[in-house]
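At your convenience, could you comment on the folded chain following this short note?
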Amino acid sequence: MLAFTVRRLLLLVPIMLGVSFLTFVSFRIVPGDIVDIRCGFSCDDESRQLMREQLGLTDPWYQQYGDWLAGVAQGDFGRSMGEGQLPVTTELERRLPVTVELMVFTVILTLVIGVPLGILAAVRAGSLIDSVARVASVMGLSVPAFYLGIMVIAFGAAWFDWSPPQFATGYVSPLDDPWVNIQQFFLPSLVLAISSAAVTMRLLRSSLLEVLRYDYIRTAYSKGLRERAVVWRHALKNAFIPVVTIIGLEIGGLLGGTVIIESVFALNGVGFYLLYSIGTRDFLVVQSLVLLFALTYVAINLGVDLAYAWLDPRIRYA
């Protein structure tokens, strides 16, 4: 297990280098840069060239990439190329709690909705509960999160004269006002969690149905154990292994979902910052945030792999 963990951690270095370089190259092969966005039609060629020199955009590409990479190695992601030119780390300190809280709420709701429904659907296979759960999961997978979020806000405003609290107050920390904080994050998290919960429910149902047919489950029933004990103590742990995989992938997918949902619900997090930076072609910010997202995704996958051995002691990594 230790050797496997060390190997995976060592693989982080080439993966992160590859992600950062591809992001760096992809943005620079597309015509245009932040100077075109900031100047529009109001600057002459001389002013544009001067601004590019000030931002370091006229340096050779390998020098730009090397300088940024050296800064990242020291924990410095550089400064935004926007008008304020604030350090990226400063913006991350302000916005990261919003995105992290949104993801934590979403994962909790995914488990609270998906796991009980998956267990009920498997234990009561063929019943009305099973049919309703499967239909609901198909609907949850069919409706895009951004569309559902827009509909939630539109119908809330049209029918109940309601808008999310953050539209007027901005982000409120749970330490300042827990109730307002919950109001701000419940609906965005629920919108994000619906599709993930649907996937979790369907996979857990099929996995648990398979495990419930095993001989050791029939033996547990023949010993007189109650259904709840058989499901929770014996079946669920083995059935949860593929679910852990899909939950890990879904958490990684949430990183992309936050980009849209934060924009829809006016949550000033890292996802909204990334979308804004792409629109303004702020290269350094995009490179830094993509690298951060990739690192988070790889770390989640490593955590999922390590969780396998805890769920099933037969799994060992040489």
User: Anything to note?
Assistant: Residues 243 and 282 are 38 Å apart (CA to CA).
